[in-house]
Amino acid sequence: MTAGTAYTFSITATNAAGLTSSSSSPSSSITTESAPVQNNNNGGGGGGSPAPEPAPEPVCNAACVAAQNAAAERAAAERTAAEKAAVEKAAAEKVAAEKLTADKAAAVAVAEKTKVDVSAATTAATAAVEKATAAAAAKVDVDTVAAAVSTIVNSTNSSAAITNKITNEAAASISSAPAAATKAASTASAKTKANSAASQVRAAATAAQKAATSSQAQTSAAPEISLGSSNTGSAAAQAAARANAAARAGKAAANEVAATAEAKAVKSKATATALQNEANAAVAEAIAEQKVATALAVEAKAAADKASTLSAEKIAATTAAKTAAEILVELLKEKVTVAEKIAAAVTVEALAEAQKSLDTVNAKIAEAERTVAETASKADAAISAQVEAVRVAEAVKASAEAQLAKVDQLNAVVPVKAAAAVRAASVAAVDTKIATAAKAAAAKVPSKAVISAKPRASTGKNSTRATISGLKPGQKVKVTVNVKPKP
Predict the structure, then answer these.
(1) pLDDT in tens, 354-380
(2) 418 burial level (CB within 10 Å; 0-12, 13-18, 19+)
(3) Phi then psi for 452, rounded to 5 degrees?
(4) Helix or strand or coil: residue 58?
(5) Does residue 335 contact residue 361 with C-beta atoms inside 8 Å?
(6) Alpha carbon of 183 to those of 194, 246, 279, 423: distances in Å?
(7) Predicted model pTM
(8) pLDDT tens readout for residues 140-196
(9) With CB atoms counted within 10 Å of each terminal CB, which end of the chain scores lower, N or C?
(10) Alpha-carbon distance 266 to 272, whole Å?
């Protein structure tokens, strides 16, 4: 240093990591003192120039001394402060260096952990992609169900029109059964059958009478008729008894045939009534089942629509979950990159800048993770809801299909039952007419024979006549004639 020159001082510090701090503020100005002047005059001979007289020393009074002392104290204090600042700065830089080392080590750990997180997030994102793909594929199945339900609805509407037509026609047909029965009973065929039944009654009566007469002929002698005497009444009574027996047999046979016809008519009426009831029940059942089919078709349509809506929501939810998962993967990759920058930082400034980037990406990751959790939850809920909706839609669709098939069967049965009811009513009417004819014919068959034994007026002088019924053709009759004596 040059004497009498003013100097200032600045301090820097270097730590063990090789990092150097910035310079401290300059110290107060310090002026060095001048060197004392030496006297080279040693006296004696030698005539050289005389040495210059030394400058007189300045006189420092009390104020000067005080100023000097104050300056010295300030200089000492500044030196102490500078030394302290240097020590503190060195300590701070040491702490900073240690922190930098620790932060770099921590960043390496963060990078490694984040790489693991990236792997897990990538797996989750892959699963989210698969769910989104499955959701899109499931829409095809939902559309298939919806198309099938639409077909069922159209078929059900057509079936409703058909059912309405068939049941109305069947009801009209059933209502016309009495008129059809009346018409059937008035046909020539019915009249022929009624006449035939009457003939059968009369034939049965005749056959029974003949059989009874034959039986009497085999067990008794030839009838004897006495005319003109007291024995005539007794013989007539015997003949009447035999004739009455034959008549009763004929009557019983006629009644039996008529009763058979009546029983058949009663049975036909019961059958007609039962078939009419069945036909009416079939009409009512077809109408009721058609209402059920229509209700199921409406329910199936609603279920299919719900499945379609939930399918769209499922696709949207799984797509959102996929997008969120992919964003999280990219953010985690970015975090790895930032963490690696922190690990490679060599200055505090570089570390601080990288840390800011890490804080920013961490905030984004936190938000992304929240979004992933929400979207994944919504996606799972949408998947479950859509699966349940499809299950319900398919179940209702199956029920609607089965119900529609049942209605089709009833629509096929109703006309058959209605026609059967009309035919049965006609048959019952004809059978009733036959029974009526048979009963009328049976009523005409006498249950008691009438023998007219009173002699008719004769044109001959010695002749008389008697009428006997209930005799077998060719049967011999013994006649006794009693002649009154002349007076």
Answers:
(1) 889 889 998 999 999 999 999 999 999
(2) buried
(3) -95, 100
(4) coil
(5) yes
(6) 15, 40, 21, 12
(7) 0.61
(8) 889 999 999 999 999 999 999 999 999 999 999 999 999 999 999 999 999 999 999
(9) C
(10) 10
